[in-house]
Amino acid sequence: MLWSVSQKEEETVYDEVKVPQRKPEKAADTNGLLAEQKATNKCCNYQVMACCLGIFCVILLSGTIVITSVISVNNNKLTAENQQLENLTKEYNVSEMKIKKLTAENQQLNTTNQQLGTNLTDLNNTLSSENERLRRAKDNQTVIIGNLTKKYNVSEIKIKKLTAENQQLNTTNQQLNTQNDNLKEQIRNINNNVTVAQQIIDAYCPIKDGNRQCKPCPDGWLHNRSSCYAINDPDTAGQTTWEEAQENCRGKNSDLAVIVNVDEKKFISDNSWKSSGDKGYWIGLRAEAGKWKWIDGSDLAE
Question: TM spans, by residue (predicted)?
Fold first, then answer.
């Protein structure tokens, strides 16, 4: 009896423990599955947002690097040209000093020539006096004439030497003038290059509110991918030939458009036909020896 009672008590306890354990397991499994699905959905949303943000940051960083590189290259080029201009200016100043020195020497030579002229005048006066003395003292005639001849010969030698030196100075002066003209021409060319570089910087990076703000294309140009396009839409009187249109483009540091793909063709066609109506427009394509070629030398693809 005791054993039976004990066994029933154990079975009762077992049933009481076992039944409560099964029901929470099912509830826990269902709740865990829903929580896991919600966490998975949130994680996917965060991953998509993080991926989009990363792509935007990469694009922004790439654009910043390209713009910074262009500005850095232009600044380095401008610095090199300024250094070259400074060196040429120094050489020009040295040439100016040499010219001043040669001018002073030339003035000294002129003074010497004037002195020689005075000396010759004195010699002539002396000759007159000596001639007078010769008339008075015939005994000393030969000696006096000999002395005067020697003095005259010395003067002639000095005059010839000074004349040769003067000619040499004139030749040197002409060479220096030529060098000076060449230096001035180089300085003008450098100034023109600096002006063109500054115009390019001002066109792509204009100053607004005291700061330079760079953009991919100058004002009035259209931007597509990595190229800039200018649409010239003159009236009938202002229409030009293909050669004149190409020359106009080169005046803007560009060329007539070379179409490399369908997207570029569509972009140019949409913007050009909209502007020119039914008049047509020029691109960088023309016939050479019966064959269509682009201005970069490539053949027209079928």
Answer: 48-71
Kind and range of the H or E run holding 281: none
Q: What is the CA radius of gyration of the chain?
A: 49
**pTM summary value:** 0.36
- The helix (run of H) or strand (run of E) holding residue 55 is helix 2-136
Residues 6+ apart with CB under 8 A from 272: 231, 281
Beta bridge partners of 208: 211
In the chain, pLDDT over 70 holds for what percent of residues? 86
Instruction: Identify whether the C-beta of residue 23 lies closer than 8 Å to the C-beta of residue 31.
Output: no
Q: What would the pLDDT profile of 51-101 be if each residue is shown by its tens digit?
A: 888 898 989 888 889 898 889 888 898 899 899 999 999 999 998 999 999
User: Any idea what DSSP says for residue 299?
Assistant: B
- Report the range of poorest mean pLDDT among 197-211, 225-239, 281-295: 197-211
Tokens read off for 85:
């201009």
> Phi and psi dihedrals of 286, rounded to 5?
-155, 165
The pLDDT score that the predictor gives to residue 41 is: 72
Chain centroid, CA 198 distance in Å = 8
Distance CA 154, CA 122 (A): 15
Report the residue count for the chain.
302
pLDDT of 23 above 80: no
For strands 285-288 and 291-294, give the pairing.
antiparallel
Nearest Cα neighbor of 220 from 245, 254, 260 is 254
Q: Is 216 helix (H, G, I), strand (E, B) or coil?
A: coil
* Residue 195 C-alpha from the chain's centroid: 10
Residue 288: helix, strand or coil by DSSP? strand
Task: State the DSSP code for 302.
Answer: -
